[in-house]
Amino acid sequence: MTVRLSMLNPDCFEYHQEFVGKCEADGLFQVLWRDLAWVQKEITLFGRRVLQPRLIAWIGDPGARYRYSGLSLDPGPWHPLLLKLKMKLTEFTGCSFNSVLANAYRNGNDSMGWHQDNEAELGQRPCIASLSLGAERRFLVRQKGGKSSGILLQHGSLLVMKGDCQQRYQHSLPKTRKQAGLRINLTFREVRCQAPV
Predict the structure, then answer these.
(1) pTM here?
(2) Torsion of CA 121, 147, 12, 97, to 10 degrees
(3) Closest-CA residue to 62 (of 196, 194, 162)
(4) Would the pLDDT of 5 be above 90?
C-alpha cells in the first residue's frame, strides 16, 4: 500500500507501508543485526567531535566512498541479503543503487538530527530508498524554516525520497521518551563520484 505524507510533494516522497512482508522483514532484521559490522563513529557537529547517537555500517561497490559530517567511509563488501534487496529496489523504483548506509537505533535515545542527504557525490537529484526494520519510529520532514510533518515508519516499510527532495526538504528521526526497541534502517543510494580521502 502506498501512503502519501501529508503536506509534502508526492514528486519527492513515496511511502510503501508493506514493501517487505512480516516474515521476510523479521528474518532480515535478525540476520543483519547479527552479521553487519556495526560501529559507532565520531562526527563533527557544530565544530566539535561527538559520537554519533546510533550505530552504522557502510556497504557497497568498490570505490563507493562516502563523506558526511567529517567522516570518510570506505564500503564493506555486500551481504547477500542486501544484494538481493538492492536488485528488488532497483526494479521497484527504477533507480540505480551501488551502496547502502545501514543505521541501527538501539533505543529511544538514538536519533538522527535535521539534515539533507545533499553531498556532492550523490548528485543533484538523488534517489534514496529507505527500508525500516524493527521498532517503529517517527520520521519528520520539513522545508527549511517551515513546519514539520511526520510519519510512523513501520516494520518492513519503504520510504523513497527522490526528485528535488534533498534540495527542498530536511528530515530527522528525533529521540523519543516512549519505550523503543532496536530499529534498523537501510538507506540505499548511488554514489556517482568518489569522495576525496
Answers:
(1) 0.91
(2) 40
(3) 194
(4) no
